[in-house]
Amino acid sequence: xxxxxxxxxxxxxxxxxxxxxxxxxxxxxxxxxxxxxxxxxxxxxxxxxxxxxxxxxxxxxxxxxxxxxxxxxxxxxxxxxxxxxxxxxxxxxxxxxxxxxxxxxxxxxxxxxxxxxxxxxxxxxxxxxxxxxxxxxxxxxxxxxxxxxxxxxxxxxxxxxxxxxxxxxxxxxxxxxxxxxxxxxxxxxxxxxxxxxxxxxxxxxxxxxxxxxxxxxxxxxxxxxxxxxxxxxxxxxxxxxxxxxxxxxxxxxxxxxxxxxxxxxxxxxxxxxxxxxxxxxxxxxxxxxx
Length: 290
What we know:
The protein has helices spanning 16-33, 85-90, 146-151, 196-199, 220-244, 246-249, 254-271, 284-289, and strands at residues 4-12, 40-49, 60-62, 65-67, 70-78, 97-105, 108-114, 123-132, 153-157, 204-214. It is of the alpha+beta class.
């Protein structure tokens, strides 16, 4: 049995350059929202990579291009309450720490998620993201071939009309309610047809290719399905936030972002040891849906 492949396409009413800053600003904000009570995000490394330092393997290639420089990050996610209950029952203490290594060579980014201390080679999530100025109609922007292409499922995420779980919904994160005065953008239409994706200007698409491998006898299909459902939920929520937060980062530069990331790292280190668990917590209902 081999990894499961799913390609999520998230269409956004913004420029590719705007999303570059917005993604990083929003990741910093979301990390704070997911950290507390002994759980959350720990940033180990955040520095540039090139052909000598933090070299990615295999090479970073997408959209007919090769990328050799960018920003490398290594994070640990402390996740005890953020996995389904049946995994918490089976996994030993300390096994629910997930490592994330990412090579951001925008507009391309590769993220590798693993559990080296417990699952080792039996678990990984590889997310390859390519950001293009189109509305999600490029048929194979990641250049897939063979089995990966034949088994790939394509899922378009509609940030305006896809159903958001009640526990995730906030009016201030609803792009059908929130405008961006700084950018001169109106709220998106709630029309359930998704036609806005063909008409909005500017427009871009995040093509997120997700490969999931979870080798655990009797649980592989269930866990891979659960992981992909969680990824879809996270992609929907996160990109709704990116659009609604546009005014917060609209005038920021990459230098501003690097300063913000340094500040957030210190805040996360403090926040992780205090207060209550925050953010996306797995529930029994999540277990049932996996």
